[in-house]
Fold this sequence. Notes:
A: elongated; B: mainly beta; two-stranded antiparallel ribbon
Amino acid sequence: EVMPTLDMTLFDWTDYEDLKPEV
Amino acid sequence: ADPCHDEGGAPRGCVPGLVNAALGREVLASSTCGRPATRACDASDPRRAHPAALLTAAAGGTAGPVCWRSEALVRAPLNVTLTVPLGKAFELVFISLRFCSPPPASVALLKSQDHGRSWAPLGFFSSRCGMDYGRPPLPATGPAGPGPEALCFPAPQAEPDGGGLLAFSVQDGSPPGLDLDSSPVLQDWVTATDIRVVLTRPALLGDPRDSEAVVPYVYSATELQVGGRCKCNGHASQCLLEAQGRLVCDCQHGTEGPDCGRCKPFYCDRPWQRATTRDAHACIACSCNGHARRCRFNMELYRLSGRRSGGVCLNCRHDTAGRHCHYCREGFYRDPGRALSDRRACRACDCHPVGAAGKTCNQTTGQCPCKDGVTGLTCNRCAPGFQQSRSPVAPCVKTP
């Protein structure tokens, strides 16, 4: 089974704003 | 046929042909007759002028005079200097000068290797070597020391026609057995950028102690020949005139410079060397796999390699790195489907900003370092048994 690629929209960046990659 | 390469294209030592390096060159004479004009010599009348240019003019050039003449010399100083800038370094073989009057009793031959800034003697010719030059007459055994030296030879003899010939073989001052290929001392001895002939003492036609008996003396000569080869250190078979009129070697073997005396900028994988008949000692291009235009030579690496390779590539492009631009720089990996010389041989790691634990992948496989539960070359998927979470710190968690 091929898993889907990570969906960036599902992540909650509330506590990790400094880690959030620039889009 | 290419003298600098064999039939298979491999480099081999080559030298320009033997020429008269003085032919057509300007001659600077410290004394020339005709100013003011006399009955015998008038510098403003081509039919009666005896300029120094006649010393190095091609034979049969004009119907006028063929000999240069000095002014009439009555009292000291009686020396006259003829200087010939050759334009570039030559390796001399012989020097000759034909006199149109009784040859001088003393002549010195000098050379310069720095375009006239300094001078060194090549040889002397005199009937009294000790008095004129402070040197013993030619010893039968040749030079006393191990290297070449300026010896004092007998003065040129007067010939029946009233003239005489000064002939000097440059190797006459060298001990036998020295080989130009292998002797830096001999290479230095035969190298000259300028030649100077100092006519030191005339064969006076009278008793110098009796001023009434002294006849004014005129030096007169023609056919100043400087036989030699354009100096290219074994890396060119000809010299060419540049657009600015300068004579330069047509350098081969990855060399450059007026005398092919250094390696071209990218050809520095080993040190420059003069070519010999056995080994061309060609300068070798650095091995940069087509990813760099510049390199530098590192002697320590050269020694460590067994004197085979010392070039270090500079500014590797196309995301390559290393001494030969032979691997990919950090953040890139080798594309196994492309040749190392391919401009796209290195691909960006492209590690996932959330799934990967870093940005640097394995330079060979391209595998990024994945966080727990993450998989894929770029760490962009959850591994089997894991599912995506909402935390960017642990993007994949075990499936409950």
